[in-house]
Amino acid sequence: AASKKVAVLGAAGGIGQPLSMLLKLSPHVGELSCYDIVGTPGVAADLSHIPTPAKISGDLPAAGSWPPKGNDGIARALTGCDVVVIPAGVPRKPGMTRDDLFNTNAGIVKGLVESCAEHCPGAILAIISNPVNSTVPIAAEVLKARGVYDPKKLCGVTTLDVCRANTFVGEALGKDPREVDVTVIGGHAGITILPLFSQVPGFMDAVDEKKMDALTVRTQFGGDEVVKAKAGAGSATLSMAYAGYVFTENVLRAMDGEEITQCAFVESTLTDAPYFASPCKFGPDGVTEVLGYGELTAYEKGWFDKMLPDLKKQIQKGIDFANN
Ligand code: APR
User: Where are the strands (E) in 193-305, listed by range?
Assistant: First the structure.
Protein backbone atom coordinates (compact mmCIF):
# COMPACT_ATOMS: atom_id res chain seq x y z
CA ALA A 1 0.00 0.00 0.00
CA ALA A 2 1.17 3.55 -0.68
CA SER A 3 1.43 4.31 3.03
CA LYS A 4 5.04 5.14 3.79
CA LYS A 5 6.68 8.52 4.23
CA VAL A 6 10.10 8.81 2.65
CA ALA A 7 12.43 11.83 2.69
CA VAL A 8 15.31 12.46 0.31
CA LEU A 9 17.96 14.80 1.78
CA GLY A 10 19.91 16.35 -1.08
CA ALA A 11 16.88 15.99 -3.37
CA ALA A 12 17.88 18.74 -5.80
CA GLY A 13 21.18 17.08 -6.69
CA GLY A 14 22.33 14.87 -9.51
CA ILE A 15 21.37 11.76 -7.56
CA GLY A 16 18.56 13.33 -5.55
CA GLN A 17 16.38 14.40 -8.48
CA PRO A 18 16.16 11.11 -10.39
CA LEU A 19 15.97 9.25 -7.06
CA SER A 20 13.02 11.42 -6.02
CA MET A 21 11.37 10.78 -9.37
CA LEU A 22 11.72 7.01 -9.02
CA LEU A 23 10.35 7.17 -5.47
CA LYS A 24 7.39 9.23 -6.75
CA LEU A 25 6.62 6.17 -8.91
CA SER A 26 6.93 3.69 -6.01
CA PRO A 27 3.74 1.82 -5.11
CA HIS A 28 4.79 1.96 -1.42
CA VAL A 29 5.33 5.70 -1.02
CA GLY A 30 2.38 7.75 0.26
CA GLU A 31 4.37 10.86 1.01
CA LEU A 32 7.68 12.03 -0.42
CA SER A 33 9.64 14.89 1.13
CA CYS A 34 12.30 16.50 -0.99
CA TYR A 35 14.79 18.42 1.15
CA ASP A 36 17.89 20.32 0.03
CA ILE A 37 19.60 23.65 0.68
CA VAL A 38 18.50 24.78 -2.81
CA GLY A 39 15.96 23.94 -5.47
CA THR A 40 13.49 21.62 -3.77
CA PRO A 41 10.37 23.77 -4.19
CA GLY A 42 10.87 23.45 -7.95
CA VAL A 43 11.67 19.74 -7.84
CA ALA A 44 8.57 19.11 -5.72
CA ALA A 45 6.21 21.21 -7.83
CA ASP A 46 7.50 19.47 -10.95
CA LEU A 47 7.16 15.93 -9.52
CA SER A 48 3.73 16.73 -8.10
CA HIS A 49 2.27 16.65 -11.63
CA ILE A 50 3.12 12.97 -12.06
CA PRO A 51 -0.14 11.09 -11.45
CA THR A 52 0.81 8.66 -8.67
CA PRO A 53 -0.55 8.55 -5.09
CA ALA A 54 2.61 9.90 -3.39
CA LYS A 55 2.05 13.40 -2.01
CA ILE A 56 5.06 15.64 -2.51
CA SER A 57 6.61 18.45 -0.54
CA GLY A 58 9.79 20.39 -1.16
CA ASP A 59 11.59 21.94 1.78
CA LEU A 60 14.54 24.25 2.27
CA PRO A 61 16.34 25.08 5.52
CA ALA A 62 14.30 28.29 5.83
CA ALA A 63 11.60 30.09 3.83
CA GLY A 64 10.30 28.99 0.44
CA SER A 65 8.75 25.56 0.86
CA TRP A 66 6.44 24.01 -1.70
CA PRO A 67 3.54 23.81 -1.19
CA PRO A 68 3.83 27.02 0.82
CA LYS A 69 3.56 26.31 4.52
CA GLY A 70 5.56 28.31 7.05
CA ASN A 71 9.31 28.05 7.55
CA ASP A 72 9.62 24.72 9.27
CA GLY A 73 12.28 23.44 6.85
CA ILE A 74 13.82 20.13 7.73
CA ALA A 75 11.34 19.48 10.54
CA ARG A 76 8.46 19.20 8.08
CA ALA A 77 10.56 17.03 5.77
CA LEU A 78 11.51 14.54 8.48
CA THR A 79 8.59 14.38 10.90
CA GLY A 80 6.78 11.05 10.54
CA CYS A 81 9.33 9.55 8.12
CA ASP A 82 9.66 5.80 7.80
CA VAL A 83 12.77 5.95 5.62
CA VAL A 84 15.26 8.77 5.03
CA VAL A 85 17.60 8.49 2.05
CA ILE A 86 20.66 10.76 2.15
CA PRO A 87 22.54 11.60 -1.07
CA ALA A 88 23.47 15.14 0.10
CA GLY A 89 27.04 16.25 -0.41
CA VAL A 90 29.58 17.11 -3.04
CA PRO A 91 30.41 14.65 -5.82
CA ARG A 92 33.83 13.48 -7.02
CA LYS A 93 35.88 15.15 -9.70
CA PRO A 94 38.51 13.34 -11.81
CA GLY A 95 41.52 12.35 -9.74
CA MET A 96 39.56 12.40 -6.46
CA THR A 97 38.84 9.26 -4.50
CA ARG A 98 35.69 8.86 -2.43
CA ASP A 99 37.87 9.48 0.59
CA ASP A 100 38.85 12.92 -0.76
CA LEU A 101 35.24 14.00 -0.22
CA PHE A 102 35.58 13.30 3.43
CA ASN A 103 35.88 16.75 4.96
CA THR A 104 32.89 18.33 3.23
CA ASN A 105 30.54 15.39 3.25
CA ALA A 106 31.34 14.28 6.78
CA GLY A 107 30.04 17.58 8.14
CA ILE A 108 26.95 17.54 5.92
CA VAL A 109 26.01 14.00 6.97
CA LYS A 110 26.66 14.76 10.64
CA GLY A 111 24.32 17.74 10.55
CA LEU A 112 21.57 15.95 8.65
CA VAL A 113 21.66 12.87 10.89
CA GLU A 114 21.42 15.14 13.95
CA SER A 115 18.18 16.45 12.44
CA CYS A 116 16.99 12.86 11.85
CA ALA A 117 17.75 12.00 15.49
CA GLU A 118 15.61 14.93 16.52
CA HIS A 119 12.66 14.70 14.12
CA CYS A 120 12.40 11.01 13.10
CA PRO A 121 14.43 8.93 15.57
CA GLY A 122 12.69 5.70 14.52
CA ALA A 123 13.28 6.04 10.77
CA ILE A 124 15.49 3.75 8.73
CA LEU A 125 18.42 5.77 7.36
CA ALA A 126 19.96 4.90 3.99
CA ILE A 127 23.26 6.72 3.49
CA ILE A 128 24.48 7.39 -0.05
CA SER A 129 26.77 10.37 0.64
CA ASN A 130 30.38 9.30 0.16
CA PRO A 131 32.69 8.09 1.53
CA VAL A 132 30.04 5.63 2.77
CA ASN A 133 32.74 3.65 4.63
CA SER A 134 33.13 6.72 6.87
CA THR A 135 29.75 8.47 6.69
CA VAL A 136 27.84 5.44 8.05
CA PRO A 137 30.04 5.30 11.20
CA ILE A 138 29.59 9.08 11.54
CA ALA A 139 25.83 8.62 11.43
CA ALA A 140 26.03 5.84 14.02
CA GLU A 141 28.08 7.99 16.40
CA VAL A 142 25.63 10.89 16.08
CA LEU A 143 22.67 8.60 16.77
CA LYS A 144 24.49 6.98 19.72
CA ALA A 145 25.24 10.39 21.24
CA ARG A 146 21.53 11.20 21.00
CA GLY A 147 20.57 7.82 22.50
CA VAL A 148 18.58 6.73 19.44
CA TYR A 149 20.99 4.39 17.62
CA ASP A 150 19.45 1.16 16.40
CA PRO A 151 21.87 -0.85 14.25
CA LYS A 152 18.94 -2.44 12.40
CA LYS A 153 17.99 0.97 11.07
CA LEU A 154 21.23 2.36 9.69
CA CYS A 155 22.51 1.22 6.29
CA GLY A 156 25.08 2.39 3.81
CA VAL A 157 23.75 1.85 0.30
CA THR A 158 26.11 -0.46 -1.62
CA THR A 159 23.51 -1.50 -4.18
CA LEU A 160 25.32 0.25 -7.03
CA ASP A 161 28.24 -2.15 -6.55
CA VAL A 162 25.79 -5.05 -6.89
CA CYS A 163 24.20 -3.40 -9.96
CA ARG A 164 27.58 -2.99 -11.62
CA ALA A 165 28.67 -6.54 -10.81
CA ASN A 166 25.37 -7.91 -12.17
CA THR A 167 25.72 -5.86 -15.36
CA PHE A 168 29.33 -6.90 -15.98
CA VAL A 169 28.62 -10.59 -15.25
CA GLY A 170 25.56 -10.48 -17.50
CA GLU A 171 27.78 -9.19 -20.32
CA ALA A 172 30.50 -11.78 -19.63
CA LEU A 173 28.09 -14.73 -19.51
CA GLY A 174 25.75 -13.51 -22.24
CA LYS A 175 22.88 -13.43 -19.73
CA ASP A 176 20.11 -10.99 -18.90
CA PRO A 177 21.72 -9.00 -16.02
CA ARG A 178 18.39 -9.01 -14.19
CA GLU A 179 18.84 -12.75 -13.73
CA VAL A 180 22.25 -12.30 -12.11
CA ASP A 181 22.60 -11.58 -8.40
CA VAL A 182 26.19 -11.11 -7.29
CA THR A 183 26.94 -10.93 -3.58
CA VAL A 184 29.22 -7.95 -2.99
CA ILE A 185 30.83 -7.63 0.44
CA GLY A 186 33.11 -5.26 2.33
CA GLY A 187 32.77 -1.53 1.85
CA HIS A 188 31.90 0.96 -0.86
CA ALA A 189 35.21 2.29 -2.17
CA GLY A 190 37.91 0.83 -4.42
CA ILE A 191 39.53 -2.30 -3.04
CA THR A 192 37.13 -2.44 -0.08
CA ILE A 193 34.51 -3.63 -2.61
CA LEU A 194 34.64 -7.40 -3.09
CA PRO A 195 32.27 -9.10 -5.54
CA LEU A 196 32.01 -12.85 -4.88
CA PHE A 197 31.83 -14.04 -8.46
CA SER A 198 32.71 -17.62 -7.44
CA GLN A 199 29.19 -17.89 -5.97
CA VAL A 200 27.47 -17.01 -9.26
CA PRO A 201 26.14 -20.23 -10.83
CA GLY A 202 28.09 -21.09 -13.99
CA PHE A 203 30.61 -18.26 -13.59
CA MET A 204 33.69 -20.31 -12.75
CA ASP A 205 33.11 -22.62 -15.72
CA ALA A 206 32.70 -19.76 -18.17
CA VAL A 207 35.38 -17.32 -17.04
CA ASP A 208 39.13 -17.78 -16.51
CA GLU A 209 41.12 -16.22 -13.66
CA LYS A 210 42.40 -13.36 -15.79
CA LYS A 211 38.90 -12.33 -16.84
CA MET A 212 37.65 -12.75 -13.28
CA ASP A 213 40.40 -10.45 -12.07
CA ALA A 214 39.44 -7.84 -14.69
CA LEU A 215 35.76 -8.04 -13.66
CA THR A 216 36.66 -7.72 -9.99
CA VAL A 217 38.74 -4.62 -10.57
CA ARG A 218 36.09 -3.15 -12.89
CA THR A 219 33.47 -3.59 -10.17
CA GLN A 220 35.75 -2.02 -7.58
CA PHE A 221 36.58 0.97 -9.76
CA GLY A 222 33.42 1.19 -11.89
CA GLY A 223 32.67 4.58 -10.38
CA ASP A 224 35.91 5.94 -11.85
CA GLU A 225 34.71 5.11 -15.39
CA VAL A 226 31.81 7.46 -14.82
CA VAL A 227 33.86 10.19 -13.13
CA LYS A 228 36.27 10.13 -16.07
CA ALA A 229 33.57 10.15 -18.75
CA LYS A 230 31.79 13.04 -17.02
CA ALA A 231 35.07 14.95 -17.27
CA GLY A 232 34.70 17.16 -14.23
CA ALA A 233 30.91 17.28 -14.06
CA GLY A 234 30.69 14.79 -11.18
CA SER A 235 30.25 11.12 -10.42
CA ALA A 236 27.54 8.53 -11.02
CA THR A 237 24.07 10.01 -10.59
CA LEU A 238 21.56 8.09 -12.73
CA SER A 239 22.83 4.61 -11.92
CA MET A 240 23.23 5.62 -8.27
CA ALA A 241 19.67 6.96 -8.21
CA TYR A 242 18.46 3.66 -9.67
CA ALA A 243 20.44 1.71 -7.06
CA GLY A 244 19.18 3.94 -4.24
CA TYR A 245 15.65 3.40 -5.46
CA VAL A 246 16.06 -0.40 -5.61
CA PHE A 247 17.49 -0.40 -2.08
CA THR A 248 14.72 1.82 -0.69
CA GLU A 249 11.96 -0.05 -2.48
CA ASN A 250 13.25 -3.32 -0.96
CA VAL A 251 13.26 -1.73 2.51
CA LEU A 252 9.67 -0.58 1.98
CA ARG A 253 8.56 -3.99 0.70
CA ALA A 254 10.06 -5.60 3.80
CA MET A 255 8.14 -3.09 5.95
CA ASP A 256 5.00 -4.33 4.25
CA GLY A 257 5.82 -7.91 5.27
CA GLU A 258 7.72 -9.30 2.27
CA GLU A 259 10.84 -11.34 2.93
CA ILE A 260 13.77 -9.45 1.49
CA THR A 261 17.48 -10.19 1.36
CA GLN A 262 19.84 -7.57 -0.05
CA CYS A 263 23.42 -6.45 0.50
CA ALA A 264 23.94 -3.43 2.75
CA PHE A 265 26.78 -1.80 4.70
CA VAL A 266 25.72 -2.29 8.32
CA GLU A 267 27.06 -2.80 11.82
CA SER A 268 28.48 -6.30 11.71
CA THR A 269 30.37 -8.90 13.74
CA LEU A 270 31.29 -11.04 10.71
CA THR A 271 34.82 -9.61 10.57
CA ASP A 272 36.86 -7.36 12.84
CA ALA A 273 35.64 -4.33 10.88
CA PRO A 274 32.74 -2.93 12.95
CA TYR A 275 30.74 -2.14 9.79
CA PHE A 276 30.72 -4.46 6.82
CA ALA A 277 28.56 -4.97 3.75
CA SER A 278 27.08 -8.43 3.32
CA PRO A 279 23.68 -9.91 2.46
CA CYS A 280 21.13 -8.88 5.10
CA LYS A 281 17.58 -9.96 5.76
CA PHE A 282 15.12 -7.08 6.05
CA GLY A 283 11.82 -7.06 7.92
CA PRO A 284 9.30 -4.47 9.14
CA ASP A 285 11.92 -2.74 11.36
CA GLY A 286 14.90 -2.84 9.06
CA VAL A 287 17.70 -5.40 9.19
CA THR A 288 16.55 -8.54 10.98
CA GLU A 289 19.68 -10.61 10.32
CA VAL A 290 23.16 -9.97 9.01
CA LEU A 291 23.88 -13.05 6.94
CA GLY A 292 27.30 -14.53 6.29
CA TYR A 293 28.92 -14.55 2.88
CA GLY A 294 29.88 -18.22 2.51
CA GLU A 295 33.25 -19.70 1.59
CA LEU A 296 35.80 -17.46 -0.11
CA THR A 297 38.07 -18.80 -2.81
CA ALA A 298 41.83 -18.27 -2.43
CA TYR A 299 41.54 -15.44 -4.96
CA GLU A 300 38.77 -13.74 -2.96
CA LYS A 301 40.60 -14.33 0.31
CA GLY A 302 43.56 -12.42 -1.14
CA TRP A 303 41.36 -9.35 -1.74
CA PHE A 304 39.61 -9.82 1.60
CA ASP A 305 42.87 -9.67 3.55
CA LYS A 306 43.97 -6.63 1.58
CA MET A 307 40.67 -4.86 2.13
CA LEU A 308 40.21 -5.14 5.86
CA PRO A 309 42.98 -2.76 7.06
CA ASP A 310 41.75 -0.09 4.61
CA LEU A 311 38.13 -0.52 5.57
CA LYS A 312 38.88 -0.38 9.29
CA LYS A 313 40.91 2.80 8.81
CA GLN A 314 38.09 4.51 6.90
CA ILE A 315 35.57 3.47 9.54
CA GLN A 316 37.78 4.77 12.34
CA LYS A 317 38.20 8.06 10.47
CA GLY A 318 34.42 8.50 10.57
CA ILE A 319 34.20 7.61 14.26
CA ASP A 320 36.99 10.07 15.12
CA PHE A 321 35.37 12.84 13.07
CA ALA A 322 32.03 12.40 14.82
CA ASN A 323 33.58 12.50 18.26
CA ASN A 324 35.71 15.59 17.75
N1 APR B 1 21.54 19.58 3.30
C2 APR B 1 20.83 19.16 2.23
N3 APR B 1 21.33 19.07 1.00
C4 APR B 1 22.61 19.42 0.83
C5 APR B 1 23.42 19.86 1.89
C6 APR B 1 22.84 19.93 3.18
N7 APR B 1 23.52 20.33 4.25
N8 APR B 1 24.64 20.14 1.39
C9 APR B 1 24.60 19.88 0.07
N10 APR B 1 23.37 19.46 -0.28
C11 APR B 1 22.85 19.13 -1.59
C12 APR B 1 23.34 20.06 -2.69
O13 APR B 1 22.66 21.30 -2.65
C14 APR B 1 23.04 19.26 -3.94
O15 APR B 1 21.75 19.52 -4.46
O16 APR B 1 23.27 17.85 -2.01
C17 APR B 1 23.10 17.79 -3.43
C18 APR B 1 24.24 17.02 -4.02
O19 APR B 1 24.05 16.94 -5.38
P20 APR B 1 25.25 16.97 -6.42
O21 APR B 1 26.18 18.07 -6.06
O22 APR B 1 24.66 16.95 -7.77
O23 APR B 1 26.02 15.60 -6.09
P24 APR B 1 25.60 14.09 -6.48
O25 APR B 1 26.25 13.71 -7.73
O26 APR B 1 24.13 13.95 -6.34
O27 APR B 1 26.33 13.26 -5.31
C28 APR B 1 26.03 13.45 -3.96
O29 APR B 1 26.38 11.15 -3.32
O30 APR B 1 27.35 9.27 -4.33
C31 APR B 1 27.53 10.36 -3.51
O32 APR B 1 29.81 10.76 -3.96
C33 APR B 1 28.54 11.29 -4.09
O34 APR B 1 28.84 12.24 -1.98
C35 APR B 1 28.28 12.48 -3.23
C36 APR B 1 26.77 12.49 -3.08
Answer: 193-195, 260-267, 275-283, 286-290
Q: Estimate the crossing angle of helix 298-322 against helix 209-220, to 10 degrees.
A: 10
Does the Cβ of 191 fall within 6 Å of ligand 1?
Answer: no
Per-residue pLDDT tens digits for 247-278: 999 999 999 999 999 999 999 999 999 999 99
Q: What is the pTM of this model?
A: 0.97
Active-site annotation holder among 28, 49, 119, 188: 188
Among residues 324, 321, 323, the alpha carbon closest in space to that of 133 is found at: 321
State the complex-level ipTM: 0.98
Please say if 188 is a catalytic residue. Answer: yes
Q: Of 222, 206, 193, give the one whose Cα is nearest residue 92.
A: 222
Q: Are 125 and 99 in contact (CB under 8 A)?
A: no
Q: Give the residue whose CA is nearest to atom 18 of ligand 1.
A: 13
Going by CA atoms, what residue is nearest to atom 2 of ligand 1?
A: 36
Q: What is the mean pLDDT of the chain?
A: 95
